[in-house]
């Protein structure tokens, strides 16, 4: 027997946490009965439906996308804007993005139907590094960079220490490029951190996700992840090591 949310995630419907939300809000039926309780155990022969669609096991698919700006990191958008899933019209499996990038942020994002991988890469205890390059208004002072390295107090919480490097500055335009590496995943976290220390972001891109980089890619490009890359991502999340 296995937990219902794990079975839903394994079928590629959603991540395990999203599967729990689907259960709690009445979207899941087991043998014709709505299942809202957490911790339900199911057998292989049980008939499971999500929004009336029977659960089937899909082939696992994994893609790395260099998300362009003005694309939504979601499966659907109420406003009819283009989503990351729209960039994969040839994929029949129900893939979805792991985590999010803001509408106006470009950079790397993984799409998959593997709920186990999604859970590993998004759970707070798995410290997966994400590296960003930000163009900011103003030229950061040493004190501001120190705050970023020790943690910035935001409305929701104090951020974990970030790795920070000032890449370049343009005193004529009063702008600078900053390299920022974090392992958390709060909404708008990088933008909010830089705004909080006095340097609003005018352009932002995520250029590294764990060991995956944008090398050889431009905005809009995508590629399948290789089996060894998927295995390394899972091992990195569980152990903190690739090998």
Model description:
This protein is an alpha+beta fold. The chain folds into 3 domains: 2-54, RNA-binding S4 domain (Structural Genomics Hypothetical 15.5 Kd Protein In mrcA-pckA Intergenic Region, Chain A, Roll), CATH 3.10.290; 62-125 and 215-239, Alpha-Beta Plaits; 130-209, 2-Layer Sandwich (Alpha-Beta Plaits), CATH 3.30.70.1560. Helices cover 22% and strands 28% of the residues. Strands 7, 8, 9, 10, 11, 12, 13, 14 and 15 form a 9-stranded mixed beta sheet that branches. A 4-stranded antiparallel beta sheet has the order 3-2-5-6. It has a two-stranded antiparallel sheet with strand order 1-4. It is elongated, with a radius of gyration of 20 Å. The protein starts with a strand and ends with a helix. Belongs to the pseudouridine synthase RsuA family. InterPro entries: PsdUridine_s_RsuA/RluB/E/F_cat, PsdUridine_synth_cat_dom_sf, PsdUridine_synth_RsuA/RluA, PsdUridine_synth_RsuA/RluB/E/F, PsdUridine_synth_RsuA/RluB_CS, RsuA_PseudoU_synthase, S4_RNA-bd, S4_RNA-bd_sf. Residues 2-69 form the RNA-binding S4 domain. One of its GO terms (molecular function) is isomerase activity.
